[in-house]
Amino acid sequence: MFRQMECFVAVVENHSFTKAAEQLNMSQSALSQRIKELSETNHLNLIEREGRGFKVTEAGEFFYRHCRGILENVTQLVAETQEIERQQNASYTLRLGYLRKFGSQEFLQAVAHFSKEFPKVNVRIHSGSYQELFDLIRDDQIDLNFSDQRHALSNVYRNEFLTSASYMVVLAPTMFAKQSDVIDTTELIDTPCILVAGADEFESEQQYYREILGIRSEFRIAKSFGEAQMLATAGQGYVVVNSRTASSVDTSVNKVVKLIDHGRDLTQRYYAYWKATNSGFYIETFVELLKAQFQ
């Protein structure tokens, strides 16, 4: 039936049996027979003869529109399958990026499952800050990112939601002693916010904290999370974490409190995203494996 559908679409688009037969490299009689078989086998009245010409019936127009979509989908399916076969026969490298601050447990598990399933595929991993990872995928230097959402989702990329976490702050137990489980950004204005960031990302992190989280504190920089915790323990500021990364906080010397902004809950959302023009079997398979780690 697929070949019959091809013949019908060619006749409609060429408005001629003769031109359609030439396009399909077949005789006009063979083409007419295919159209006849299509109509009679399926009890359809698709074309009506008018003298030496013909017209497409309303049912025929409906059938044509859907036939064209099916043929296009089949063409795409064949192309994608051929690409998978080409990748299997060639040395393929899947380039992945993940947000350094999130931690790597779920990401590591997904990589392990992928490598076991596709041992011939090379996997190259890069960890970095949000801006660093975004620049890499924008410039086609990596295929997929696992990072948090900081801007409106773009149609340029395919975005797969993975998980979310509430923002929290790490404080010395003696600071804000009356606070139990929640603290507002308005209460932290006079307390420095300690950022774990390199010199190249300090400015962009400050902008994110101010514009998205509503933090109005002055900022201090720490080279590592361990250093940031020590500064917090000494009462020299607070560190912003989330409900997932808070597990790495030493609660014997610091306390972890939920952060809100003017009464508004603050949530960090994580996505896997990749360029829509670069979607393929291995990228989509890895995304499914990564999603499974958060379910």
UniProtKB/TrEMBL annotation:
Assigned keywords, A-Z: DNA-binding, Transcription, Transcription regulation
Cellular component GO terms, alphabetical: protein-DNA complex
Protein name per Swiss-Prot or TrEMBL: LysR family transcriptional regulator
GO molecular function: DNA binding; DNA-binding transcription factor activity
Lineage of origin: Bacteria, Bacillati, Bacillota, Bacilli, Lactobacillales
Record-linked Gene3D superfamilies: Periplasmic binding protein-like II, Winged helix-like DNA-binding domain superfamily/Winged helix DNA-binding domain
Cross-referenced Pfam families: HTH_1, LysR_substrate
Limits of the HTH lysR-type domain: 1-57
UniProt cross-references to InterPro entries, sorted A to Z: LysR_HTH_N (IPR000847), LysR_subst-bd (IPR005119), WH-like_DNA-bd_sf (IPR036388), WH_DNA-bd_sf (IPR036390)
Organism superkingdom: Bacteria
PANTHER family according to UniProt: HCA OPERON TRANSCRIPTIONAL ACTIVATOR HCAR (PTHR30346:SF0), TRANSCRIPTIONAL DUAL REGULATOR HCAR-RELATED (PTHR30346)
Family, as annotated: Belongs to the LysR transcriptional regulatory family.
